[in-house]
Amino acid sequence: MSQQQALPATTLAPASAAAWRVSFVALLFVALALLPIAAKLGAEGYILNLVTRALIFAIAAISLDLILGHGALVSFGHAAYLGIGSYAVGILASHGVEEVLLQIPVAIGAGALFALATGAVSLRTSGVYYIMSTLAFGQMLYFFAVSLSAYGGDDGLTLPGRSTILGMPLLKADTTFYYVVLALLGATYVLTLRITRSRFGRVLNGIRENPARMKAIGFEPFTYQLAACIIAGATCALAGVLLANQTGFVSPAYMTWQRSGELLVMVILGGIGSLWGAIIGALSFLLLEEVLSLITEQWKLILGPFLVLVALGGYGGIAGLADTLRNKLVRRGQP
Amino acid sequence: MTAPLLRVEKLVKRFGALVVTDELSLDVRAGEMHAVIGPNGAGKTTFIHQLSGSLSSQAGRILFDDADITHLDMPQRVRRGLARSFQITSILPGQTVLANVALAVQARSGTSFRFLRAVDHEAPLNDAAAAILDRVGLGARKGVRAGSLSHGEKRLLEIAIAIATAPRLLLLDEPLAGLGQEEAQVCIQLLAALKREFSIILVEHDMDAVFQLADRISVLVAGRVIATGTPDEIRANAAVRQAYLGDGELD
Could you give the CA distance from residue A78 to residue A89 in angstroms, rounded to a whole number? Predict the structure, then answer.
């Protein structure tokens, strides 16, 4: 085994590292799939509701991680897409269209369109100016929603009920809705993971690492970054559709800049760029929020230092920490 | 005589009042290795930037294969076959050596708007990249993260990436920069081999290497070409000795 130890850490059995990640994520999804059964032992409705919400935010966080972790695009306006998705549901429902198979394409289309229009402008800037412009577009949409007096303005809209599938109220039961959300999260995770490992994903990551090099081999960064923004926007709009259905309510509050900040926190806490970290980040953020706010109203006072530690530690969030621990264990296990 | 592969006509670059490229004209013939030398501050790197498209030009024209490319951006020029290497190593440190080169192959093989198939397993990209890495002598380092290569290996990777774009004219900006004696010899042998296959513009400080490799040499002083000729002609040129080389340095 001495030969293996001589290898630098960077080449340490990547295959087994990938295998451990796959098994970890699989385990996570199995646990989430079993949760509704376990929840029957406790406050079923409360737990199911809380975790459903966390899974919805996990979809949003994964979409943000695609552009943040793989495109190095720090969007401070990502909550706008939650708003777009939920307003697609709210506005259509207020006109009597409760069919989710219509609502989802409208939401995804609107999200993609908003990403195309704002990205085409924002991506001409970089660094702090990029962050500022995404923030500005997010705020514009927020105030636009506030001004929509026909759709409740500041107060928002109450939905008549959960969306229907082919006219049937299949999402009505909380447990069914939970499994639909979990399945969509699984699909989002797998699809996004495949995107990051595709030709497109390799170009996107290359632009993150070294845009000058990418131009020098013939890639125009703008086009690829814009495409990534459109994918992320469309995905997050799907999360918005689910969020509206979960709360039964749509309001401008879904797209405040604080909400955009929380999405960033979820991704960073979980570990930028790892995708499954985004799921862990969303789950831990919302669960921490719930638990800590039972202890004190100022729960962010406790979360704050923790985030600083994550940033300082350079562990790559919870996902990075898990990888580090696992590598240590593996090395200890070797002769 | 056939038209040159690259024709530069009275190219100008000013930074404020400072004229860095001063009506520079130059021809590069197909198949030749054309070295550009000159003292520090002569404007060699600026000229390379203008050729590759990372800097715009205020006046003059660049004709590549009879087409005016003066106003094309860098990715467009690369797609026409004008590739460059960087003076300061510019690679993707987090990707494997193979992926660095495979990306350059990918850039010229079909669309990159493919979202679902794993690019790791695209044999045509990997095979082409592996063949190029074998040529530059990095075949054994394919699976290593590019960031963990030695400086000399990174310089070779830099050249491999440029070749992988399948250029018709290769701009090499000080490929020997920072190399030790042995590493430089490896690199010079590689350049000698590439010379038969690609038209090359070589900017280099190592005079031994330049005079050994180049078919023709242009001497740049204060943003202008003061002489172009074979190594022997340049060695014998009085103006060149006067302006740049200093008497006796080349003997």
Answer: 18
